[in-house]
Amino acid sequence: MKISLIIAAIGHVICGITDCMLAYTKDGRFDFSDIRDNEKMQKTFSSMSLKQIELAMLIGVVALFMACFGYIEISRWICTTNPAIGNIMLIASMFFMVLISAHHVLCGAVEWFYVKLGRTDDALKAVTDFFRSTIIAAIAYVGLLVYAVMLFVLVVAGKTDLPWWACVFNTFPAFLILAPTKVPAKGNIANAFMFFGLAILL
């Protein structure tokens, strides 16, 4: 189990790095709210390499595959004492992993086509339309929320072998702490924190 959890934590760390590869360029930081201002977009992506975007997409998917090991292992562990909850967590985590992998690639594709098409106003309109039509993939986070909250409640309620205070090693509280900050890749940091912590305790 420890090996699977460590692999998952490393996977989220790597995915966080690929998120930064998509978000940061030599000329600034990209935020999806910037798509309303093509002048700002042109400046941010003026030196962005297509190869960097491609690597971020591909490595990110591999990293998320690595993370699957941790979600499956924790779900299996919960199944030994509570099969119903464990199976719900497994379904929720796979819902999250499949759709978040698609979302990661789609976000990268928005940047790739914007740069490839010359960063023009027409290019921005095209990728904006594409992004809006595929944003549904972000529903993936519902699966992660279900997974994290169920694990949190089980640990606090004493329904696992872990002490109640081990609930801190969970994406849910970790993300709430990180959310107000300007730290990049908050979700991946929170997930990596959960898996590293559980790897130590289990």
Please give a structural write-up.
The chain has 202 residues and is mainly α. It contains 8 helices and 2 strands; from the N terminus they run αββααααααα. It has helices at residues 2-23, 38-44, 50-79, 83-116, 121-134, 140-156, 171-178, 186-201, and strands at 24-25, 28-29. Strands 1-2 form a two-stranded antiparallel sheet. Strand 1 (24-25) and strand 2 (28-29) form a beta hairpin. The radius of gyration is 18 Å and the shape is elongated. 34% of the residues are buried.
Descriptive keywords:
2 strands, mainly alpha, elongated, 202 residues, two-stranded antiparallel ribbon
Proportion of residues in helical segments:
over 70%
Q: Unreliable stretches, pLDDT < 50, 5 or more residues?
A: none
User: Radius of gyration in whole Å, from Cα?
Assistant: 18 Å
What is the N-to-C order of secondary-structure elements (H for helix, E for strand)? HEEHHHHHHH
Briefly characterize the structure.
The protein is mostly helical and 202 residues long.
Annotate the secondary structure layout.
Elements: H1 2-23, E1 24-25, E2 28-29, H2 38-44, H3 50-79, H4 83-116, H5 121-134, H6 140-156, H7 171-178, H8 186-201
Antiparallel strand pairs: 1-2
